[in-house]
């Protein structure tokens, strides 16, 4: 299978899950210390992952957890981000300039900064009060959700925590590679059909909204140089639907959290107005050993990424466009 | 001038400003009563206006004010929206189904609902604890900002409140129609150049981000049936920029609040990578009688709408596409 190293992918997920004792120790300490508000802070892909984590928490928890956009922070500010706040960041390189600028401002305020930074000697890693280093990109969402889950456990909102992670430790990594194998045929067919789309619309909601947003922007636009637009399922019905006709390519990411009905509503409408729709429904994939009640947490979030990863691998090959080249990003100063 | 009734537009703004004594009385009462959190709740266009108001407040105030998406509320919920919370809504028809569903859920929680509802006998008007009726659409942002300003004044964060509104009462309405006249030539040229664009990118930040989002979705997509994508200025540099080349139509909304530098950065980059860019910079328009320090509040928000309104009027005529027709929205059940 193209661009697929089964054992490495299993190791990556298992390795991220193995960070849990570290995460727990730090989160427990932070929870005991107390906080007024918690901010997942990011830009671009990390902003998307932050939206996923915060939507996930909002559906289950009373904790005051918010998304804070890095560049909005150092321009507009946020007076409710105080010395007693907890800020959670993630970075692969540890050098994203907007995040560095925001973190420098936050350090003046005195908030506590917790980072999942893949590069341990990077500028961002050095600025964090708490840092966990795990040099395998692609596990950011899992790490953000592990952080969230431990917070919710401490907050008395996740009684099944141990049982849940037992299932993840035992089954998740293997289940995801199996799902990815199952998705390969779909990925190829989708890539063949859509790799020259003038524009492709991606629609999603809930903890899949951040995935939808980042898939359109960080994968299609940034890595494959293909034009795409993401739109939240609920918002799709308040404007974007009017430009849809027989020939408009629209893909709906259908997950399994509380907002599934919003995406399902779009999926029910599309066949009546669109002749080029695709539904990626996580329900079509088994995750043996993972209880039904846990699927809507991190498992189906990661599952969606496994499916889209198959599209990307085939687009990259068919379009002869290496995903790691950039036209402009970090190529010159701007 | 096409689709331009100068006196009516002046009357509409002046009439909205004249709601201030009502707004003040209600906000003062609500402020004295106290609240834990305030939520601007909306969907589609009202979600966009909510984002504008909340970004505006965040830059200036310590008040716990948040955006709450209506459909996310009745699916995911929000445990920090309590009986002590204040929810602010706006609606032209008073019949938006997602907002009705959300408000019905919120009423069970017992939060206080304040509505600017244009239709006084509508379902939403009847559900509000406080309602202000003013049957002139197009003043929603002004009303949201008036509400915000009074809150901030009560919170000790707007000492110049009386001076500011004196300037608005005396000059804003007239200044806006003058700006709109100034923008007409630009609007025609822009419409001629872009009315057949296969896709148009709109970029903006700060209290112009909601305007950018709604302009792309509620005007181009919904009313003109033209394809467009909105992207926040800070996010544009983290993905979307890679699909820009000589022929990509990109328009940047440049306002005058704290996030102006984020849009300016995009405007500085675009000439180097794009051959079809447009900047709509509110600084190019005078607003006589409005102090420099007040321009970044509501004046330039409304000014941007006056400029884009000139584009829409010409697109409507040239494209022979009446802006009030809908293909799907409210045409059948879905």
UniProtKB/TrEMBL annotation, chains A, B:
Listed Pfam families: SIS (PF01380)
Enzyme Commission number: 3.5.-.-
Known partners and oligomeric status: Homooctamer.
Keyword terms of this UniProt record: Carbohydrate metabolism, Hydrolase
Highest taxon in the source lineage: Bacteria
Protein name per its UniProtKB record: Fructosamine deglycase
Residue ranges of every copy of the SIS domain listed in the record: 27-157
InterPro entries: FrlB_SIS (IPR035488), Fructosamine_deglycase_FrlB (IPR024713), SIS_dom (IPR001347), SIS_dom_sf (IPR046348)
Function: Catalyzes the conversion of a range of fructosamine 6-phosphates to glucose 6-phosphate and a free amino acid.
């Amino acid at each position: 299978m193209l661009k697929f190293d089964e054992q490495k992918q299993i190791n990556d997920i298992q390795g991220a899950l193995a960070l849990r004792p570290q995460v727990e120790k730090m989160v427990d300490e932070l929870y005991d210390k107390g906080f007024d508000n918690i901010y997942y802070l990011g830009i671009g892909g990390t902003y998307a992952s932050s939206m996923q984590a915060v939507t996930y928490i909002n559906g289950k928890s009373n904790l005051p957890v918010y998304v804070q956009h890095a560049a909005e922070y150092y321009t507009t500010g946020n007076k409710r981000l105080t010395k007693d706040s907890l800020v959670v960041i993630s970075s692969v390189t540890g050098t994203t300039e907007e995040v560095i600028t925001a973190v420098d401002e936050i350090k003046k305020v005195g908030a506590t900064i917790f980072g999942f930074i893949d590069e341990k000697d990077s500028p961002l890693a050095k600025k964090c009060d708490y840092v966990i280093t795990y040099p395998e990109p692609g596990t950011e969402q899992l790490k953000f959700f592990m952080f969230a889950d431990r917070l919710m456990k401490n907050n008395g909102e996740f009684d099944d925590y141990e049982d849940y992670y037992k299932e993840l430790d035992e089954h998740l990594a293997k289940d995801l590679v199996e799902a990815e194998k199952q998705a390969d045929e779909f990925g190829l067919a989708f890539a063949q059909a859509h790799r020259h789309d003038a524009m492709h619309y991606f629609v999603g909601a809930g903890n899949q909204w951040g995935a939808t947003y980042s898939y359109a922007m960080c994968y299609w636009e940034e890595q494959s140089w293909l034009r795409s637009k993401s739109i939240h399922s609920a918002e799709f019905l308040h404007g974007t639907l009017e430009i849809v006709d027989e020939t408009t390519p629209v893909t709906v990411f259908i997950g399994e959290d509380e907002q599934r009905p919003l995406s399902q509503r779009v999926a029910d409408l599309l066949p009546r107005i669109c002749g080029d729709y695709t539904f990626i429904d996580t329900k079509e994939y088994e995750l043996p050993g993972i209880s039904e009640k846990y699927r809507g947490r991190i498992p189906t979030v990661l599952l969606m990424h496994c499916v889209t990863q198959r599209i990307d691998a085939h687009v990259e090959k068919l379009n002869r466009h290496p995903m790691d080249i950039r036209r402009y990003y970090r190529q010159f100063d701007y």
